[in-house]
TrEMBL record:
Family annotation (Pfam families): HECT
SMART domains xref list: HECTc
PANTHER family, alphabetized: E3 UBIQUITIN-PROTEIN LIGASE NEDD-4, HECT DOMAIN UBIQUITIN-PROTEIN LIGASE
Any GO BP annotation: ubiquitin-dependent protein catabolic process
Source organism per UniProt: Hyaloperonospora arabidopsidis (strain Emoy2) (Downy mildew agent)
Keywords, comma-separated and alphabetical: Transferase, Ubl conjugation pathway
InterPro entries: E3_ubiq-protein_ligase, HECT_dom, Hect_E3_ubiquitin_ligase
Reaction(s) catalysed (UniProt annotation): S-ubiquitinyl-[E2 ubiquitin-conjugating enzyme]-L-cysteine + [acceptor protein]-L-lysine = [E2 ubiquitin-conjugating enzyme]-L-cysteine + N(6)-ubiquitinyl-[acceptor protein]-L-lysine
Residue positions of the active site: C298 (glycyl thioester intermediate)
UniProt-recorded name of the protein: HECT-type E3 ubiquitin transferase
Length: 301
């Protein structure tokens, strides 16, 4: 059966330690954001992931990847992990059952949004020669035979929005929700709005160096002037980094490139306990390998 590989993956995740789960979700996030996964694509305006409606018709096995993805979202929410990539606002709204609006279409396709706004704001739309179809799909029953005109243009726009934001990805959305609801109930989900859900799944959108600095533990070797200078150099370099570079450094030390919704005060170690980011200075060059991280550490040090 197509679902077996994903069932085995979920059972394997359940047996992982907290640190192994962090690593696993980070690798999965990289895979999701790569071209290897054709089920999602990133939308330029919001920089969030949306279902790939342009993909060829999906097989039953391919649809199971959406069920699996839904289950992973549930695990992330229940266990306080981070996805390390952001989901699009329309997808977050679907997860919460929040009504989709015309403005959400702008996030997916600026050109289509501009076209329907023009239709709403202008007369003599019959001259466009359009009917109630998009990409060969009928927006209403017998849509091929129904022409667009000023009397039905509001219905037309409503159906266009519904097509792009739901009808064209209906099966995939339902599969995601099937997986998600098998892990977490709608009652729990509906506590959040889509902005809060975004933060819980993906963490803070920006890495704030001031917050990082405020919630960092410094372990001096002798607290000399040259050690203080080294610390200042570290923060100066971090300030000069781009958001991507900061995320890479954070991932290298902690195992995750995301910052929890609580900020750096909520940073957890690989053991699942709250552990501040730690800078430890040493004097013995021969022991530097044991001090510097050579992989993500359970102590965020």
């Amino acid at each position: 059966m197509p679902s077996r590989p994903y069932s085995r993956s979920m059972m394997r995740i359940a047996t992982l330690t907290f640190s192994e789960k962090v690593q696993w979700f980070y690798r999965y996030s990289l895979k999701l954001s790569s071209s290897l996964v054709g089920g999602f694509h990133i939308i330029p305006i919001h920089q969030g992931y949306w279902i790939n409606r342009t993909a060829t018709e999906k097989t039953a096995e391919e649809l199971q990847t959406y069920v699996f993805f839904g289950k992973l979202l549930g695990k992330i929410l229940l266990e306080g992990l981070l996805l390390n990539v952001r989901l699009s606002i329309p997808l977050l709204k679907h997860i919460l059952g929040v009504p989709i609006k015309l403005s959400d279409l702008y996030l997916l396709d600026e050109t289509v949004h501009s076209s329907v706004m023009w239709i709403l704001g202008n007369d003599n739309t019959a001259a466009l020669g359009l009917n109630f179809t998009i990409e060969g799909a009928e927006l209403i029953r017998s849509g091929t035979d129904v022409s667009l005109h000023d009397g039905n243009k509001e219905l037309y726009v409503t159906k266009v929005v519904q097509y792009y934001l739901f009808d064209s990805v209906r099966v995939e959305i339902l599969k995601i929700m099937e997986g998600l609801r098998s892990v977490i109930s709608d009652t729990v989900l509906h506590v959040f709005d889509f902005k809060e859900l975004d933060l819980l799944l993906s963490g803070l959108p920006q890495i704030d160096v001031d917050d990082w600095r405020q919630h960092t533990e410094i372990r001096f070797y002798e607290q000399s002037s040259h050690e203080l200078l080294v610390i200042e150099w570290f923060w100066e370099i971090l300030e000069s980094f781009t958001q991507d570079q900061r995320g890479r450094l954070l991932q290298y030390v902690t195992g995750s490139s995301g910052v929890p919704v609580e900020g750096f005060q909520g940073l957890t170690g690989m053991d699942g306990e709250i552990r501040f980011f730690t800078i430890q200075l040493g004097n013995d060059v021969s022991t530097v390998y044991t001090v510097l991280p050579h992989a993500s550490t359970c102590l965020n040090r």
